[in-house]
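testing teh design pipeline on a random one, pls ignore if ur not involved
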């Protein structure tokens, strides 16, 4: 990619940064598996501002893939969704929090300087979080409780904002929701997607049978009753207690900040990749996040849900609304209803998380006539690592 092209994008994106002139230095790009839907370009911008002082910005350019088949299938829509979140949803939430003088507002996302919509190309220009001390967690290792809790704390704020805004200004909330195409439902409407999810489920059942663990096998088989039809129904449900979700809750979409090089206890988190953000039950974020990232803490899920709900209730009060908008009993009902869908998806999710780079799909190579579901044909790892991620989830579900 030409530096001149990147500089032209930045001329537009940084118009409000008051550079007289600047130079662009390119950094390292994304590794395979770190950005399925887009490509990341890391850049350093150095120049002089209008007050004649040197100015430096560390940025990440998230650009859409050029492949036309992928753009038509889901690629362009995914970028439009993330742009909607950064241009409309977050500014609305920021204004709403300012109005209520919230002490610790929801700001757990990177600063976005600009969303650019060009011909067959979308670009989001973000601050680079790495120089600020944020880093990714090893995606193959479950989050410990401190990491899990800090994400749930931010999810509680995010979800509370929807409940409170809908309570106090339903028109404004509905205006945000009208532009919301559900990419999860779109993804699950493809026969290829459902076929490959079913394939992953059958492979997992064979694996559990071979492990000679009849209790775990029997419970998982029971969870799967209704098959992928149940999955489609769960993800397609939108009711009065639906809120704006993150929607893409796997390990690689969180960057954590630490103090004193203590990597066990993060002090802050930023949530990345809002391309599948959608209106749905809060339990969707909670079930997908906890199953995909924190299965080793399954014995603590009920306690974590209580903590999440306490934080959601507290934030609702700060925003001037009642915790009765989403009671703990509501949360338990939604959680129990949605959990089977998350468990059905977990084997395929773990296959992606545990795969080596060479096994991962490259959506930029999509051929005309194929769709994203065709790329979900991932082998289920017959490893202890896979089994040890899945087993605690099934045992937890067995005790519900």
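output:
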């Amino acid at each position: 990619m030409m530096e001149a092209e990147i500089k032209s994008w930045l001329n537009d994106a940084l118009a409000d940064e008051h550079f007289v002139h600047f130079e662009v230095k390119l950094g390292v790009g994304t590794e395979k598996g770190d950005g399925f839907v887009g490509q990341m370009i890391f850049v350093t911008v150095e120049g002089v501002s209008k007050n004649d002082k040197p100015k430096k910005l560390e940025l990440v350019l998230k650009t859409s893939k050029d492949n036309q088949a992928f753009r038509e299938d889901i690629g362009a829509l995914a970028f439009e969704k993330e742009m909607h979140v950064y241009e409309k949803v977050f500014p609305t939430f920021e204004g709403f929090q300012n109005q209520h003088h919230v002490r610790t507002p929801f700001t757990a996302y990177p600063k976005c300087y600009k969303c650019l919509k060009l011909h067959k190309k979308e670009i989001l220009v973000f601050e680079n979080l790495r120089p600020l001390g944020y880093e990714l967690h090893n995606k193959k290792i479950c989050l410990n409780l401190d990491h899990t809790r800090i994400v749930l704390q931010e999810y509680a704020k995010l979800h509370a904002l929807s409940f409170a805004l809908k309570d106090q200004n339903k028109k404004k909330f509905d205006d945000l929701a009208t532009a919301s195409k559900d990419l999860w439902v779109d993804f699950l409407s493809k026969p290829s997607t459902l076929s490959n999810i079913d394939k992953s489920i059958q492979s997992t059942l064979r694996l559990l049978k071979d492990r000679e663990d009849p209790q775990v096998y029997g419970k998982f088989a029971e969870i799967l009753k209704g098959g992928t039809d149940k999955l489609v129904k769960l993800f397609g449900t939108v009711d009065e207690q639906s809120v704006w979700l993150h929607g893409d809750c796997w390990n690689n979409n969180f960057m954590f900040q630490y103090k004193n090089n203590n990597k066990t206890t993060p002090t802050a988190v930023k949530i990345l990749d809002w391309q599948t953000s959608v209106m749905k039950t809060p339990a969707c974020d909670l079930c997908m996040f906890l199953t995909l990232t924190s299965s080793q803490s399954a014995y603590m899920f009920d306690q974590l849900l209580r903590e999440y709900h306490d934080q959601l209730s507290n934030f609702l009060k700060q925003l001037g609304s009642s915790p009765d908008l989403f009671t703990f009993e509501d949360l338990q009902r939604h959680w129990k209803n949605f959990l089977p869908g998350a468990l059905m998806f977990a084997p395929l999710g773990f296959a992606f998380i545990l795969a080596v780079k060479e096994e991962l799909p490259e959506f930029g190579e999509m051929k005309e006539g194929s769709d994203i579901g065709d790329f979900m044909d991932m082998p289920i790892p017959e490893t202890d690592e896979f089994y040890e991620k899945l087993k605690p989830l099934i045992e937890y579900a067995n005790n519900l």
